[in-house]
Amino acid sequence: MNNAEILEKQRQYLWPNHVLYYTEPIALDHGAGLTVWDADGNRYLDFFAGILTSSVGYAHPKVTERVQEQVSKLAHCSTLYMNESHVLLAEKLAAMAPGKLQTSYFTASGTEADETAVMLAQSVTGYQEVIALRHGYSGRSALARSLTAQAVWRVGPTQIPGIKHALAPYCYRCPLKLSYPSCGVACAEDVEDVIRTTTTGKIAAFLAEPIMGVGGFITAPPEYFQIVADIVHRYGGLLIIDEVQTGFGRTGDYWFGIEHWGVEPDIMTMAKGIAGGFPLSNTMTTPEIAQAAVGKGLTISTFGGNPVSCAASLAVIEVMEEEASPQHVAEVGNHFRAGLERLQEKYPLIGDVRGKGLMQGVEMVLDRKTKEPATKEVNALFEQTRQRGLLIGKGGLYGNSLRLAPPLTATRDHVDEALEILDHAFAAVQEMV
Ligand SMILES: Cc1ncc(COP(=O)(O)O)c(C=O)c1O
Prior knowledge:
Blueprint: H1 3-13, E1 28-32, E2 35-38, E3 43-46, H2 49-52, H3 61-73, H4 84-96, E4 103-107, H5 110-125, E5 130-133, H6 142-147, E6 163-166, H7 186-198, E7 205-208, E8 211-212, E9 218-219, H8 224-234, E10 238-242, E11 267-270, E12 281-285, H9 287-292, H10 307-323, H11 326-346, E13 350-356, E14 359-364, H12 375-387, E15 390-391, E16 393-395, E17 401-404, H13 412-432
Parallel strand pairs: 3-15, 5-6, 5-7, 7-10, 10-11
Antiparallel strand pairs: 1-2, 2-3, 4-12, 8-9, 11-12, 13-14, 14-17, 16-17
The chain binds pyridoxal-5'-phosphate.
Pyridoxal-5'-phosphate binds near residues 242 and 271.
């Protein structure tokens, strides 16, 4: 089937509220490394990696081989039975995760991992209320949509009570109209204000992403998470850090994003890049916290710890260690960042460049003083980059931030190719403004 035929069936049989990128949506057919081909045979360099998920590129031979081996042996078992890949992956992650995070509960999506984290915090603390951040994104269940704080993703009237949202550490559009560092990171203090004024004074948890992914790669200042962690613990809560986008070396230098802030979470959630595209997520915590949940009700997961996804994850981590270590990501990420900053000097449309490692955000504005969001121009840039064979992502409350996040196996050459395409695409769009 070609793109047009697939689109016709998509329109006929899938819910029309599926969000599809591009005026003429792309049907992906196959991939190798950082390259994907659509159903019409067009070739693209992928700088969005299936929403930061194809962490070691497409069809990596090591991952393919391990998955095939596991599928031919055992494709499913549920959490009611043990399996070797499941425990080996848990052991591996205990060695990779920061601090005392040693015990895992695997599920199948980021939404479930965040659900599991909140369930654990509520059952262990005995408190109900949860603080999340404005501009945050947690997924598509009722709880996750309530934790999410961007109107367009809070679909439906049902919202779970007991969830409050503090100000985001969004320096480019500071909610307090201050500037870093003279602000003294005042946004972090808002967490205490929200607890004292809108909750019962005791909370189960605070949940946040180290870099706000769907929010447009909003990156908190260096002091932010330490200040917040102290506040959260003083009010009885656990610190839940959502590493769904930032985990597995994505931000460079470390395996997990929060390590840049030198803070140890009580609970950490992960998904997306964990298994390079196979459905898998994990909620990690300390042995003490995990133990405290015992006897407070039963829980199972049919797809949790799926042997194929766990085997894929073990292979993906091995490939990262060999070809895409956090150090490699930092090095290639710095090269990418320098190139994006050069584009910022050239094109007034680029208001802000932010992020870490291979998670780089570009916020586009019509005017650098008023910071009016250049939402239509982002769409135009999408069409321009697509025509030139580059896939990118977008996000942000105003839909005006580019999310640039290739597979972590990206090299300087891939980055140079992407920068050249972006340069031409920006030149074309800047001319239209
Ligand atoms: C930070 C974060 N948490 C949770 C989720 C939900 O993950 P999933 O779509 O796998 O349910 C996402 C998805 O984009 C995310 O970015």
